[in-house]
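SEVERITY: medium
COMPONENT: batch folding queue
REPORTER: lab tech (J.R.)

DESCRIPTION
The queue accepted two submissions in a row. Attaching both inputs and their returned structure tokens so the on-call engineer can compare them side by side.

ATTACHMENT 1
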Amino acid sequence: MKCLLIYFTGTFNTRYVTQKLSDRLKKEQWEVDTYEINPLITEQLNLVPYDIIGLGSPIYGFCAPYAFLKFVRKQKFPKGKRVFIYKNSGETYHANDASSKYVLRKLKKDKAIVENEYHFMMPYNIHFKFEDDIIKEMFEMNKKLLEILVYELVHGIPNLKPYKLWPRFVASVVSRPQYIGGNVNSFLYKIDKDKCINCDLCIKRCPTQNIYRNKKGDIAFHHKCLMCMRCSFYCPKDAFYIGFLDQWGWKVNGGYDFKKIEEMTLDHPVVTSQTTGFFSCYIETYEKINKRYNELFPSLDSVNGE
């Protein structure tokens, strides 16, 4: 099988998931190419040579990022081409269920065959920072989900179900402000000159070239922000003021050490049936992943009926 993984990434979570997916598919002797979307380039890809195409993105405000959706809409998916979706977010509330609504609409218009969609969990780059033990358990669940994905793709087992009405409403109405939110919010962006060390990482990394130095030599902003959070999240001195998000206390600064977290050992479950608050949304998700994983990969005892 020849596979192409097309993805958009903000703070590199989707790049991380894509690399894991690529490595795993290669173990199945698949030939895998990856393509990271550059919001400044709208080239049309040649999708004909591929047997199957994966479309990956984070979820922004209960919907696929506009930069991702815009790129997908520019592509011409050959009729009958197999396509699957893999998305990721920091929460698994059902409000996210229909986040691929407009992506699916485009694929169905092109008469591509879309039968599989998977929701991976990755830590927030906004709102609040995740603890390492939470992320470690998420990664363990992601490993299981990855095995489920590979098995279902290899064996042609569909898992895509029609979206319920209210998540479709959320994707249609509630999420739409994210398409212009960055442009509006960027009028309020500021840099703390006492903290800034002029490393220019934010300028170099911004996916839309929204950050620049003005004639005075100060960091300044255009108004084509995607609100991907790459600039403020990775600023080594936490020098960014990011408008409403800062006012609401939603800014997160400092990346996660995924390699270190992967090497951690958990000696107890972090999310349990008694978990309350934000992370309680993972209870149902973990149960579903474990149930499906055990269906596809029963233990030796289960196989022997013991």
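ATTACHMENT 2
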Amino acid sequence: MNKIVLSLFMALSLIACKEETHKPQEKPVVKIGIIAPMSGEYAHFGESMKVAVKMFEEDDETKNSARRYRFFIEDNAFNPARSAIVAKKLIDVDKVDVIVTLSSDIGSVVSPITQDARVIHMSMATEPNVAKGEYNFTASTPPNKNTGRMIEELEKLNLNRVAFVIQNTAMMQSVAEQVRKAGKNGRITIVSDNAINSGERDFRILIHKILEDKPDAMIVQLQPPELQIFVKQLREINKDILITSVESFGYPEDKTLFEGTWFSGAVVPTKAYVAKYKEMTGSDATNYSELFYSCFEVVRHAYTSEDKAKVINNILDLKMKSFSIGDISFDEDGMMQTNAYLYTIKNGQMEVMEE
């Protein structure tokens, strides 16, 4: 090779090296799997979740984050057995780094799977056992605060004799435990404690039995569709008894059956979040999408390393002001610590009674 050719070769090599040096580095990707109801009674939560994903992606572009976030959405139709199947698919096939789930029923099934696979799991659940294991976290208002706020209001209204109807699901059991604890502590008198199974449809005999005990109020901890069926049959028999719950009345898409009722619920979305959500959808009914968004915010703030142990410690140490729900922190057990609020149903929509 003569000197001219050699010089030209070296020059081209230097240019290539320079271009390679200045080539922007590809951002590491964090894969987030979401298990949510996209069909069935709770499909409206899944649709709102998709809006939260879009909002987060748009917001993340403006922040020029150090990482990119890729979402994998799986429909579980709010079915625990299907949730276990899609969780394994997200882990084994999609190789996700994080899984986000909705509710204690689903979180209870997914938590053992994510713990064994060493995949971080954030669940919008109230059941403390969902957070069992270092890889699992809950991302909703704890049951003691939610139930405590409802009991406080019953005490304030002097509604001391309470009938209680609970559905045999993980979602409702943590509430049941707190209500019974309030009864043992003398804060309320539980005159009737009743459990039903999913799939039951005729509650009229049970309702008559409950009303015989003359309760001042009835706590109704049921899921759709049993919730709507029970309340409709109750109102056909007695239109006046006060009914309340922890979150349940906010679950149905059509809330007109619960018009004028009050109940305790999880965190309130920030005004900025509601405004952005309404700008994108035309509706201010956020359907708990702010909790999905808050999980994404936690992941973004905690993922400063590829080391899972470091990410977990970051979550536990996190004290941040989020765009979606305000203050966020976790206790040593991995449960998000947020306040509970009172809601009412007005014109078919959830409305905060206080902030």
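NOTES FROM REPORTER
The longest strand covers residues 29-36.
No errors were logged for either attachment.
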